[in-house]
What does this fold into?
Amino acid sequence: MKDHVTETQAGPTGSDALTSRGPSSTSAPAAVSASDAAAADPSAPSQQDLLVQEGDIAGDYLERLLDIADVDGDIDMDVENDRAVVAIVGDGLDALIGSGGAVLDALQELTRLAVVQQTGVRSRLMLDIGGWRARRKVELTQTGMRAAARVLAAGQPVSLAPMTPFERKIVHDAVAGVAGVVSESEGVEPERRVVVLPAGA
It folds into this structure.
């Protein structure tokens, strides 16, 4: 199974123990995008305002999480590329990242659900902890560049290890910047992977 290179990040769908203090998700209204919400009602907050609100809600939620876990950390909030970005910064945060970022991905999904429960707006919020995603982005960009160089040298496709949507998107972006090669995603989750090919193959 093949599709085009475009990937969008999506968090895991696990149902781990931490839940929001907001209303039950079973009674929450169907979520819409921030842009749709703004367009539906001209008097509603702008998309930028909604993203700032997302960050504030996420920050409050994560502060409670840190208190429960008895972990010290500072919370930074920003808006980048039409997405709320929240980061927990500090030392000793490995337990909140987990192997391969698995715990981080679960916490990101739970944080998005907490936002949806309070806003009714679908969230694309990005959570980073201890700079893990930033470091992983550098590693994956290098992986994509090396794979592209191998394809250019040998003229043969290179298949990479299975990755999450977040990771595949970074590799696709790296390969897109190299002339003479293209990338595709193949397989079914959780074994879905990037394949780098000669352009026109």
Notes: The first strand starts at residue 2 and ends at 3. Residues 1-29 have pLDDT under 50 and may be disordered. Residues 134-198 form a domain with the Ribosomal Protein S8; Chain: A, domain 1 fold (CATH 3.30.1370.50).
